[in-house]
Design goal:
heterodimer, A: alpha+beta, Ribosomal Protein S5, domain 2, six-stranded mixed sheet, four-stranded antiparallel sheet, 10 helices, B: alpha+beta, five-stranded mixed sheet, 4 helices, 31% helix
């Protein structure tokens, strides 16, 4: 499916509005859209809504053999899925350029910054380590997928709790969540990426572009930072030439934004922890808004079963008896090729030579495919029809 | 004939639905059954690739995305079940040479996956405004070791069950559109489960009506 192309008048309107410091949704230049972070039922599931952009991240862990050159460290695996749900332009299965770019940026942001202590994921050195897998699914694409994905990924990692493991000699026991409380991952810092879009060859800058703004932008600068004002990764794409002052200004803006976002994440994690401790049900079902007219929820309903069993009984009693199944559907008629085949099968137990003797003439008439050399046509073309007739009489 | 001691108090877990939760797709819905939740999105009728176009009807494509990892054979077989149900109820001949794409994302699996997929698909198709000849819903029945019939089982109940069946029931005559079964059971038990599913589908259809009535209660 193709995405609808952007019309020229839309493009001109957006660029002109940006020149006058106006944005489509009324935000200021450095404003983020409204962000909402919710969690799923199991540990490690997180939903991030950045305006209308929706992203879901799920963290899971399993025990695997470690990499050969790093026997003491666990393995982190990141995967961003551009689901066809998010945009008509995304196709299932195909690794598009955007998908490769987002995956690589997330890896650089989280893996290369060493925000997770991978040595604590080791269970038995050289044999068993935890492989932590982060799957980020895009649910709705309304711009700035990278920021939403990085927030979702790091929040899900903070939320995730892996099963407890006990080692006795050579035996490794993995305890289920009911037996022993699961353990959270040890996370040093939370890198969060902030995206800046540039217009008119770097003259105008916008933070957190929406989908329309992304379509008309010239270039994108992505800065990943943590709240301690350490830059984890910088990426500039689109071929715009930025001055040093611009990059410094962007990093200052990013540090302010990152501290706000980190506080929002910590608050959301706290709320979730409190809700789980209080014993309430948490999850996607609970976070569904009740007061909207587009949402409805019912309680547990019971189903009347009384005349269901009677109806079932009637159906079974009045059903037709299934037809008798015939053991062998093929009845060999004399003088047909099948009979020959059956005879051959019986003969296999007796003497093979006697069979050849008896049916010599017929067997001679059958065609053997002559292996042809390249360029030479088959010699027995005119004898084709003759053999068909002979097979019939066999 | 085997005696099935069916208890008279089977129940469906609480369910909830939200429509139009995503801005990009033409129709979207989330369906929640107990803890099992699914988001469905529909795009269509839209442009179709020449290799996939059918001259007199729309091409329906169903994609099921699991939560962790890439889609496997299990997802493919569930996609086929959902696609055949949708094709039977959608009026595809009204949009020849177009494509309809239905994407289902599993949010949390606590049993009755396929039924939840079917319900979410129907709500998303309704939200997109695609013409349908009938609505459909999915009901899962499990037969446990004591030969009791449980509707809408949780994951724990599914694991202990002897047989697991999912039926897609249509709204006009409560007939079975699709069935997907696992495990061994007798003919009598099958008919019992179908009858129970037909009864349970009435609750689900009433829920559809209520949620659509609520949705259009305000004149915009």
């Amino acid at each position: 499916m193709k995405d609808t192309p952007l019309s020229n008048c839309e493009r001109d309107f957006l660029l002109k509005a940006i020149e006058e410091k106006k944005r489509l949704d009324g935000r200021q230049t450095y404003d983020y859209r409204k962000m909402k972070i919710t969690f799923g039922t199991d540990y490690g599931c997180c939903f991030v809504d950045l305006g209308k952009t929706r992203v879901m991240a799920q963290v899971s862990g399993e025990l695997v053999a470690p990499k050969e050159n790093r026997p003491n460290e666990g393995i982190m695996f990141f995967n961003i899925e551009l689901s066809p749900m998010a945009s008509p332009a995304f196709e299932q299965g195909r690794q598009s350029e955007l998908s490769v770019k987002l995956n690589r940026q997330l890896e650089r942001c989280l893996r290369n910054s060493k925000c997770i202590d991978t040595e604590s994921l080791c269970v038995v050195s050289g044999e068993k380590v935890w492989q932590i897998r982060v799957d980020v699914h895009m649910l709705n694409h309304d711009g700035n997928l990278m920021d939403a994905a990085s927030i979702a990924a790091i929040t899900a990692l903070c939320h995730f709790k892996r099963p407890d493991v006990g080692i006795q000699g050579d035996e490794v026991t993995v305890y289920s969540p009911e037996e022993r409380d699961p353990i959270p991952l040890s996370i040093y810092h939370m890198p969060i990426s902030v995206s800046f879009s540039f217009f008119q060859q770097g003259t105008y800058l916008l933070v957190d572009p929406c989908e329309r703004e992304e379509r008309v932008m010239d270039g994108l600068l992505m800065i990943a930072m943590n709240k301690h004002r350490e830059i984890c990764s910088i990426q500039s794409s689109g071929g715009i030439m930025l001055l040093k002052e611009q990059v410094m200004r962007c990093s200052k803006i990013a540090s302010v934004k990152v501290s706000e976002i980190t506080e929002l994440i910590s608050k959301a994690l706290e709320n979730d922890k409190r809700a789980r401790k209080a014993g309430g049900r948490c999850g996607f079902a609970e976070s569904m808004p009740q007061e909207r007219i587009t949402a409805l929820k019912t309680d547990e309903t019971s189903v009347e079963m009384t005349d269901a069993s009677e109806r079932a009984n009637d159906i079974v009693e009045n059903a037709e008896v299934p037809p008798q199944t015939v053991p062998s559907p093929v009845v060999p008629a004399p003088g047909v090729g099948q009979e020959m085949w059956l005879r051959y099968l019986t003969v296999k137990r007796r003497k093979w030579s006697f069979f050849i003797q008896k049916h010599r003439t017929n067997l001679l008439k059958m065609q053997h495919p002559v292996p042809t050399r390249r360029g030479q046509k088959r010699q027995n073309k005119d004898r084709k029809n003759e053999s068909k007739n002979s097979l019939n009489c066999i | 004939m085997m005696e099935v001691c069916g208890s008279t108090n089977v129940s469906l877990r609480e369910f909830g639905c939200e429509q139009t939760l995503l801005s990009r797709p033409d129709g979207s819905a989330s369906f929640v059954q107990g803890d099992t939740s699914v988001i469905a999105a529909v795009y269509g009728p839209a442009e179709v690739k020449v290799s996939k176009e059918i001259y007199d009807r729309a091409t329906l494509e169903v994609l099921i995305q699991p939560k962790v990892g890439l889609p496997s054979v299990r997802e493919r077989s569930q996609e086929q079940c959902v696609r055949e149900t949708c094709e039977a109820s959608l009026l595809l001949t009204l949009h020849p040479r177009s494509s309809l794409t239905l994407v289902l994302q599993l949010i949390h699996d606590d049993g009755s996956r396929l039924a939840c997929f079917l319900n979410a698909a129907c709500m998303a198709l309704m939200d997109a405004g695609l013409p349908m000849s009938c609505l459909f819903c999915g009901v899962t029945c499990a037969i446990n070791a004591d030969s009791d019939i449980i509707t809408d089982p949780t994951a724990a109940q599914e694991k202990e069950s002897r047989a697991l069946m999912t039926f897609a029931i249509d709204s006009k005559e409560q007939r079975v559109m699709m069935s997907y079964t696992k495990g061994s059971f007798s003919v009598h038990e099958l008919q019992q489960c179908i009858a129970v599913s037909q009864k349970a589908s009435e609750n689900i259809f009433q829920f559809y009506r209520d949620s659509v009535r609520r949705r259009y209660s305000k004149n915009l």
